[in-house]
Structure formats: C-alpha cells, structure tokens
Amino acid sequence: MIIETIVVAEDDDSIRKFLSILLTREGFDVKVVERGTEVITECRISKPDLLLLDIMMPGMDGFEVCRNIRKESNLPIIILTARENNEDKISGLILGCDDYITKPFDSTELVLRIKAVLRRAKEHSKPENERNIVELPGMTINNTSRITEVKGKVVDLTPKEYALLWLLANRPEQVFTREQLLDQIWDVDYYGSTSVVTSLVKRLREKIEPDVSNQYYIKTIHGVGYKLGVKPL
Known about the structure:
One of its GO terms (cellular component) is protein-DNA complex. This protein is an alpha/beta fold.
C-alpha cells in the first residue's frame, strides 16, 4: 500500500497540530512547517503528493509560495485560510492552486476535498491521446515544454492560463461554459461564482491577443461561455 504524503504549511500551532492528527488518522504521512520560507525546501525534500497551504505565514506568504512552486512543479495545492474575500480566491486559483478552503472548516469536508484533488491529480497524470504541439495562426503551443510562442516570442503564462489555452486549442469549435471551465481547469465545483474564469480569460487575452478588443484567439459566446476562435493549422 502506497502512503501519500501531505505537507501542512500553517503558522497557527493549534491548527497545525489538529491537521497533523486528523490527516495522520486518515492514513497520510504528514510533514508540518510553520514558516513560508520553509515550505519550498520541505516540498523539495519530501516530494509530497499534496500541499495544504495557509496564506498568512511569516517569511513568505502563501501566494508567493504557490508562485514559486508552480515554477518547478504541478504539485497539487489546496489553500486553507481565514481570508474569505473573492479577490484572494481568484488570485490563488489563477496562480495555480487546485482548491481554496476557508477557516473555520469542517474536518470531514476537508478530508473529502483533499482526496478529491489527489484522485484528480492521478487521473491527469495518465497519458492522453492529445498532440504534443498545437499550431494556430501566429501561435505555437508545445505541451512537452509547456512553452507558448506568439509571433515567435515566448509568452509567460501562469499554469492556469496555460491550462485554459491548451484545453481550448485541443477542442476546436467546442463551446465551454464557465462552469465547465471551472470544473475542468480546477477540478472543483465548490464556488458559487464563476468570476475566477472570467478573470482568467481576461488575463490570458491580455497576453496572447493581437488586439484584446477583437477576440481573435478566444471568442466569447454570449450567454454561454468561450471557444477557440481560430482553427489549428
């Protein structure tokens, strides 16, 4: 039996101890850290299956930790925080976290959501019958190197921006609702608002569209959602 490892990054001692006991009882190997600056080092050493990450930590906040981890891995990340405002949720999800849970939390729901993220991460790691490279007029997307070039220049995309672009590029003519994109890119259906998808599309357009107002690559289908606006070459 393979025991999955979870790194718990939490500066509150009582919450840290509670999470360690809870997750150990669920059969996980738990590593705990209390400072943001320790998280990246611990993840490199223990190579966990999931990171449970607080936002407000000394040394480096959770957003910066997430940003740094996403530069080198697709480690599943769940943010667990007392900060409830929608802007923080959008920031965390766009940076690449896989779920966002606010305190106080129900321990049963937390465990279920951890298991759901782990299960989906395993499913996504399976080989898919997709091309490694998609060429669009003026754009090349390489899924092996995860590099996107627009007019020959590399565009710096966040993991979620890239995931959105790759999904649309591999499904030409398919229209996705915001709810479908929320489910497929983040694998979550816990958020009442799809504003995170709208924000993600806006940020991606600002990076790849020749003219943001003309919607060349990503078309808005009013009242429905979005689709790829050009045919792959």
